[in-house]
Design goal:
The chain is of the alpha/beta class. The chain has one domain: Homocysteine-binding-like domain (TIM Barrel, Alpha-Beta Barrel), CATH 3.20.20. 44% of the residues lie in helices and 15% in strands. The strands form 2 sheets. It has an 8-stranded parallel beta sheet. It has a two-stranded antiparallel ribbon with strand order 8-9. β4, α9 and β5 form a beta-alpha-beta unit. It is globular and about 45 Å long.
Length: 291
Amino acid sequence: MPDVRAALADRPLVLDGGLGTMLEARGHDLTGSLWSAGVLLDSPGDVRAVHADFVAAGADVVTTASYQLGYDNLAAAGHDQAAVDALLAASVRLAREAAEGRAWVAASVGPFGAVRADGSEYTGAYGVSVADLTRWHRRRIQVLADAAPDLLALETIASPAEVEAVVAALEGVGVPAWIALSAASTAFDDAGYASALAVAAAAPEVIAVGANCCPPSLISTVLDRVPAGVAAVAYPNSGETWDAASRSWHGDAGATFADADAWMDAGARLIGGCCRTTPTDIAGLVHQLES
C-alpha cells in the first residue's frame, strides 16, 4: 500500500463502519462492559471476517477492534498487562490479515469513557486530570504503534482535556493519526470545538481531525470549525441514539451519508460510518463518492 498521507492528497478515503454492529449480527452479545473486545478475546475469527466484509464493500481503511481495550477493564476481567498488550497487537494483526493489502489499517484508540462503559464519552465528565489521562492513554497508544498499523484512530474524544491528553500521549510515536471528537458530547460548545480541533491539528503526528459517533446532522457543526487547510475526518452513526443505561439503541436509521458531498466540500478526506452502519452502507458510500 502507498503512504496514506500521499493517498489522502490524491483522493478522499472511505472508512469502514460499525464493527460492533456486525459482530452482533453474527450472534455475539455486546451488552457486557468489554463490548467488541470480548469478541476479540473469544472469537477473533469473527473479528477478522467483519473486517474482510468491509474491505469487500470497498472500504479503504479498516479500524481495529481495540476501541474498548484498556488495562483497567481487562484487569477486572482477569487479564494482566501482558495479556492486554498481546490483545492490542492481535487487533492490528487481524485487521491486517483481513485487509490483504487492499486497505490501510487504523488502530482504534477509544476514549477513557469507552473503557468505563457508562456513556461518559458523551459527557467528558471523567473527573480525571490531563496528566492522568495522558498516562492512561500513552501505554495503549505505544503498544498499538509498535504493532505497525498504518494509522492511529483516536476516536470519540470527549472533552477539551482529553484532546490535550491524547495529543501529549501521541508525541514521538512515529505513526500518523487522526483525532475525531465526540460530536455528541456535552463537554463541547462551538468555541470548544474550534479550540480543541486547533490543538489536535497542531500535533505533528495528526493528519486529520473531525468528528465521529454522532447523528449525521452534527458532523457539519464540527467540520465547519476545522482549521483551514487541515484534512477532516467524518464518520457518524446511523442516526439512532444510544441509551447507556439500557445499553441499547433507539430511534430510526436515516440517510447516513446524504450530506457526504457537503462534508467533502468542507474538507473531509476520510469519510465512513460509526455505530449501526454496515458494509451495505459503506458500499453505497463508495458508489456515491465515485459518482
